[in-house]
Amino acid sequence: MNHHAALSSATLLRDQPWHRLIAARPALRWHAQDGLTFDDVPLAAIAAEHGTPSWIYSAATLRNRLTLLQTTFATIGLTPAIRFAVKANDHLAILNLLRQGGNGVGAGADVTSAGEFARAAAAGIAPAAMVYSGVGKREDEIAAALAAGIGQFNVESAEELAMISAIATAANRIAPVALRVNPDIAAGGHDKISTGRATDKFGIPLHQAAALYRHAARLPGIRAIGFSTHIGSQIFSPTPFEAAYHRILDLIDSLMAEGATITAFDLGGGFGIPYDDGIAFPLGAYAAMVKRLIGDRALDLTIEPGRWLVAPAGILLARVTLTKATEAADFTILDAGMNDLIRPALYDANHGIVPVGAIDAASPPRPTEIVGPVCESSDRFGRYDLPALKPGALVAILDAGAYGAVMSSTYNARPRAAQILIDRGQPHLIRMRQPIDQLWHDEIIPHA
Questions:
Q1: Which residues form a coiled coil (predicted)?
Q2: Is there a binding annotation on residue 443?
């Protein structure tokens, strides 16, 4: 091949969809011989040692994103408390990294169950640095969190408020409470991840919030500190946040004009991440909007990011099991399926998929249906333009650090995948691949 032909070929390959996806993700790089690397570690080497499917996480990406979040606000004079949404990824190693932080200031936790509370505590996060959210808190969960010194309950209803008051009074404790307000804001995104509309199960209707706050301030065992809101996930514009915050700040102003004590405003989370090579959430514009709206109000701010922090820090490494050609479509079948990553089946989510092998990546694209091995028609990742991948070829499913492993299951009796954390160039096994006999380890056959 002459020089001009080589340049044309290189330019053509750089224009392939998988190259654009990789170029948009700093932790991913090509190596001429080793193929795709993650934090400079060849993914093929990880597959050879730990097998597939496997979850791979970048510690550097986690630290960098947490630091970016903190410095973006600090630059404009705000220091909101960061409470990571544990539901996005509850692995102890991930929680520990976020607790430590990237610049010496770590994140706390937003938890929604006794299990998440216990996991966060096991990772070293102090209960005082936790927010307890969720519509279905049980009495025993409330009592345990209160006894441990929980930093804040985000209360979802009048009924829950009464329950917390009774439990706190009986225990001779004071529960710090913020009322979660449903501002009736449609923030876009998938219907199943919208949480701030009047028809959603979350929060207290805006028109009832003032009266309930007055009531909370008089209840025994309750220290009413303010309000919280969360309007959904995968939001890419500050506009719906601003609309929601306006409504709640108006509520705060009116109550404070009556003499109410309000010290806290929990802004929630929901910042979107591009699963393609698109435009990222405008974090700077969001922070500036918050600064402008808050003005000179003396409020302690909290934000609850989940996906934004951890999704770009994780990938799902999978191997092609076989290919199948039909008159209707060509199928590329992976050893990872909806039991590993359910988001495509549940939310119609589309994750970027890229080849790992250097030779594969140098081949021209062709359309193929990427599917998994699970016995369900919904076990489908989507239609992609990828090189012709032979059995044994590796692929990386991108931005899988959030709502990936934490939502995985053993459906079809498929063991849970291994998890590996890359930290300072060294891969660490942080969860072993589940042995098949562990699938029924806790099952009991009653004797007649």
A1: none
A2: no
